[in-house]
Amino acid sequence: MLAAIGVESIDDLFADVPEGVRLGRPLDLPKGKPEQEVYGRLRDLAAKNVSAEDEISFLGAGMYDHYVPALIDSILSRSEFLTPYTPYQPEISQGGLQVMFEYQTAISELTGLPISNASVYEGPSAVAAAGWLAHTHTKKTTFLVSESLHPHSVETLRTTSAGWGTTIEMLPVENGLTQLGEVGDDVAAIFIGQPNFHGAIEDVASLSAKKGKALLIVQADPLTLGVLRAPGEDDVDICVGEGQTLGNRLDFGGPSFGFFAAKQDYIRRMPGRIAGETTDVDGRRGFVLTLQTREQHIRREKATHNICTAQALNALAGMIYLSWLGREGLVELGELLVSRTHYARKTLAALDGVELWHDQPVVREFALKLSKDVHEVLEFCSERGVNAGYPLEDNGLLVAITEQRSKADIDRLAEVLKEALA
């Protein structure tokens, strides 16, 4: 079997697992122990883990510690949502199909784009799916990708491009903003983040005006769209992103869901499920899966996309969360994030040994440059119960502020950071 898949040993299968998280030896677990002793030993090991609720966390970089109301678990745990499989039979799946339809409506309103699918796996795969759509629609082979697009999305796009024959050219970033020059005739799509990975709010309208015949693809943070202009209003062709911030917990990195919205022109090349509204023979309102001839379970190798899976339960959490917040609540939460992030940025930038990465407007996250090794600083802060953020290259630090971080928490971060940099 090893020869068939092109590796020499079992260890080769784990080559992509970083050395730092490998044990490197057998578990120190004597043979012949009764189950209850083994359970106790593993429980003690598990107790050494530190979750985001055990510390003051400013860690973000794509996944964020937002509050998840109890209402979400209450509805998700209902068996009609928790246990069903793909709703191929609409006559027995109206509840699940309506959830998909309502979710799609919410994503369309958030992004300002008319078409949404019923979700995909997560943010980076949504970016890759958008790349495939752009490549097959334009028949062109070059992707222009901002250096401030989330690195996981860039990595996923590189991986999939290797199979498509498409190439990636990186767009430089100056003072936090993506720089776009002349767009050649061979360009299928331009990829940017909004806000981008370093927290800056991109000038989407300006970039859109320069896109020419290429598709502009924006990886957006949905929770910031209560205070930022919807991408569809700036002639963005496709808006995708990570949906974890909408009512999904961190949960050790997942699962979550990705959202995908686009202009009407691209509906037949969209990935994933699309729920549609219809009427039955008696004229009653109903819901069905629609346009399934795009999908591989119908068209096999001729399908326009091979992702049929919707992260329906996670997307339902997003739908409940948006309903719980409401239109005004989404704006109020966005304004709260802007206010606290502004305070945190101003407070931390005033410390000796701290500089701003850029001076562009931000919503919830911002990047700093430190005068000391960022990993040593993070270790110092961690020993004092503060997770100061995500380390960047050149001793950069990415700091995220959610509504769960109070002014006192921010002041505590400033206190330990000042000690670490002294």
Number of helices, where a helix is a run of at least 4 consecutive DSSP H or I residues: 11
Could you tell me the mean pLDDT?
94
Shape: globular
List how many beta strands DSSP finds.
Answer: 17
What is the percent of helical residues? 25-40%
Strand order, biggest sheet?
Answer: 2-10-9-8-7-3-4
Radius of gyration: 23 Å
Concise account of the structure shown:
The protein has 422 residues and is of the alpha/beta class. The protein has helices at residues 35-46, 70-76, 79-82, 94-111, 123-138, 151-164, 204-209, 296-299, 312-349, 374-382, 407-421; strands spanning 56-57, 115-116, 142-146, 167-171, 173-174, 177-178, 187-194, 215-220, 238-242, 258-262, 275-279, 285-289, 354-356, 365-370, 386-387, 390-392, 396-400. Strand 11 and strand 12 (285-289) form a beta hairpin.
